[in-house]
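INTERNAL AUDIT FORM
Audit reference: QA-55
Scope: verify that the stored structure record matches its stored sequence.
Auditor: D.O.
Record contents follow.
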Amino acid sequence: MLQRTFVLRSLPVIGTLALGVALNCGGGGGDGSGQTPSSTPPTATQAQFLQAAGRCATDLYAQAAEATAALDAAVGAYAADPSVANRDAARRAWEVANDLWQQAEVFQFGPAAPATLPGGRGLREGVYAWPLVSRCAVEQTLVAKGYEAPSFTATSLANTRGLAALEYLLFSEDTNNACGASASINTAGTWAALAADPAAFSAAKATYARVVAADVAQRVRTLADAWSPAGGNFGAEVANAGAGSATYRSGQDALNAINNALFYVEVWVRDQKLAIPLALSMTRGCAMPVNGICPNTLESPFANRSQRNVRSNLVGFRKLFRGCDDDAGAGVGFDDLLTGTGAEGAELATLMAAQLDASFAAVDALPEGAMTEASIAAQKPAVTNVFTSVGNLVSLMKSQFLSVLDLEPPVVSEGDND
């Protein structure tokens, strides 16, 4: 869901929307579980679904809090001794935390959501503000040692903090910077002086990373506490929607909030993470494609996790759609609500589950490193297949799914007709 002042309009899905063809190409358990959804999944009441969704979010944020605490510890060890071994350990901890956070990106209802939405506290942006990122801003902060200010994590711009800034600090080995020639770090020679001393350069990045990692861990802990039964217990707000919840006047209000979050796969996965690097959209720094692509707009350019992020986003979607009880998506999900509406809903549940599997299959078919600056041009047809598969899933969401469950279209999708 958007947390910005702009609204991205959806792009037309490239390729056939003859879903029978699409489903036959990818319904073979592309999630790696070896399981396929049942043609007649169990039904569930709205109350059971809301209880399951609240419990799922609570568990996922608790896992993310544990992972970011481990990341904080690993980066702290790296800052104390910026050796290659400690750096690599910090990188691995970042990957674990990032994979969990990418799942949680699809759970932006409640405290992670913008303050303008029910229960929203805007807690997501302090953890991960993408696509509001700026390598130059991080590099300017690095040279100026802005991270040493006691108020840095409270007052600095979001694009100088969070998991994205931490990715640059841990993974980038480039001694050049992304700022313009007229930027003060270049005209004054301060960047060149820092980069010329490898030990000082590594130590500065590690120290900056320590500040950011501690801030990320604290912010994710705040979010996890907001959901925890021992803390804010927002899961109870979801479960008790319409029956004592101070946030949701009805179960349908809560259902609409979760549905709104589910459309992350349209606005961010399809339209930002896939369409823009593939030059299928000319927005956000992609006015002039190079060789038919825009590699500079990839989400994870330093750790090269862009395709992994897409897959993790699909895992988050699967948790809400098919259930959160295990990696195969067992448990109560939107598919059970669909089935409970009758034959039409049951058929749609099967179609959407198969198209979700097709999306997993398309991602899993990509060679390792396909969505990197070095490889995306050669892999454009395969990555476009991911875009098309996710687009077919979105098309089902925006038509039958909303209709069968009587859901409100998300604000970011109103007026779109694809």
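Auditor finding: record pair retrieved intact. The mean pLDDT is 88.
Action required: none
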